[in-house]
Structure formats: C-alpha cells, structure tokens
Design brief:
single chain, alpha+beta, Nucleoside Triphosphate Pyrophosphohydrolase, four-stranded mixed sheet, globular
C-alpha cells in the first residue's frame, strides 16, 4: 500500500486541477507520498511546491481517506488523504509532473483517469456543484 496526500483544487468554473506524471497516461490529483516522519498536510505542501511551484493559500479542508488501485504501480493500492485547498502562485509543472490541466467533473474526460479519480474524486466534486 502507498500512502499519499492529494489536493482537490477547484477553480471558479467548477473545474478540478489534474496532473500527469512523466512517462504515464493517467491524470490524477496533485500530491504525493507521505514520508515516515511527515504529516499528510506537510507532505501535500511539499509536493505542491516541488511539482507545481505553488503554495497552499490559507488553510485546508480534510475531505477524507480513500483507497483505490494505484494508477502507475501494478498490484498496489493507494490510500489517499484528500484535502480541499486553494493555491497561491502560477501552476508550473516540474519534477516528475509533465502536464497539468483543468477538467470539469460533469464532462466526460478525453484522457485516462487514475482509478482514485474515477471512483472517488469526481463523484465527490460533482456533489459540490449540486449543492
């Protein structure tokens, strides 16, 4: 099992920020692995700065812990702590992130999504726009 912290960033149009790692096909939430001596929020802040050049603006809201098959590691489960956050700074893919995009959760994706996105995140975010 891989323990990660991931950011649910939604813009003013209701679109969610997704990223794709270099050499992979599936889009997922920004974030990454939580280190042994690290809190999930500290790991998330570190990953967002390393991978997107952004800081968490203000606070964060815990959305829960979800499990799904890992997108890029066969026979592995990812356990993700999700946090709703706003970002400060220009989004600029770096480190292992090759691409970032915005996707509206009510539209069918024109690209592959990580299982966590399909099974948990998009249904959760769709619920926000419905009240």
């Amino acid at each position: 099992m891989i323990r990660i912290a991931a950011a649910v960033v939604v813009d003013g149009e209701g679109r969610i920020l997704l990223v794709r790692k270099r050499g992979t096909a599936a889009f997922m939430l920004p974030g990454g692995k939580v280190g042994l001596a690290e809190t999930a929020v500290a790991a998330l802040a570190r990953e967002l700065e390393e991978e997107l050049g952004c800081l968490i603006l203000g606070g964060h809201r815990a959305l829960g812990r979800f499990s799904a098959p890992a997108a890029n590691e066969p026979d592995t489960i990812v356990e993700a702590e999700l946090f709703a956050v706003a970002l400060a700074g220009e989004i600029s893919p770096a480190a292992e992130i090759e691409e970032a995009c915005w996707h509206h959760p009510d539209e069918p994706p024109a690209f592959a999504l990580a299982p966590l996105m399909r099974e948990h995140v998009l249904p959760l975010v769709r619920g926000w726009s419905r009240g």
